[in-house]
Specification:
Elements (H helix, E strand, L loop, with lengths): L5 E3 L1 H23 L11 H26 L1 E3 L15 E7 L2 E8 L10 E3 L3 H6 L7 E4 L5 E10 L2
Parallel strand pairs: 1-2, 4-5
Antiparallel strand pairs: 3-4, 3-7, 6-7
């Protein structure tokens, strides 16, 4: 089964790598501490809790490793100007007379409150591959029109 590619900025890659290292350290520390014995009826709840914690940590390690092993870094020259909207670009748009800047990032780093939208979101998908001056309609019943004003490196 082929894994999906995850788009990450260098900073995002660093955050995921740091989290992975921290979880591995946490597991090491938990194992060094007194591991509850499964034999004592008094401690069986503590042992079960310990096992559940370890399973969650190991599961998160697998998730992080999958992301890091299947990622593509967004690595464009910050001085270049994008001609076509792609992941990693900052897109200045006009939406109903209001100016807005959106940064197209991978889904793992999307944060709409900071105008960082996923390349897999409806807006992100619609903008990908377009050029400055293009208009993009999003929505079926009540379509919003976005006019692309400028495309620059954004991440």
């Amino acid at each position: 089964m082929e894994q999906d590619k995850f788009f990450l900025t260098k900073a995002g890659y660093g955050r995921f790598k740091q989290e992975l290292e921290q979880i591995r350290k946490t597991i090491e520390e938990k194992i060094k501490e007194d591991v509850p014995s499964p034999l004592s009826s008094e401690l069986s709840a503590e042992y079960t809790s310990f096992q559940e914690d370890m399973a969650q940590l190991r599961s998160r390690i697998q998730e992080l490793e999958a992301v890091l092993n299947n990622c593509e870094l967004i690595d464009y020259d910050p001085k270049s100007h994008c001609q076509i909207v792609r992941v990693g670009c900052k897109v200045a748009i006009d939406k109903d007379g209001q100016q807005e800047e959106l940064i197209i990032v991978g889904s793992l780093e999307a944060d709409p409150r900071q105008n960082r939208i996923s390349n897999q979101s409806p807006i992100g998908r619609a903008l990908l591959g377009k050029r400055a001056g293009d208009e993009v309609k999003i929505g079926a019943r009540i379509a919003q029109v976005y006019k692309i004003k400028k495309i620059t490196y954004g991440v």
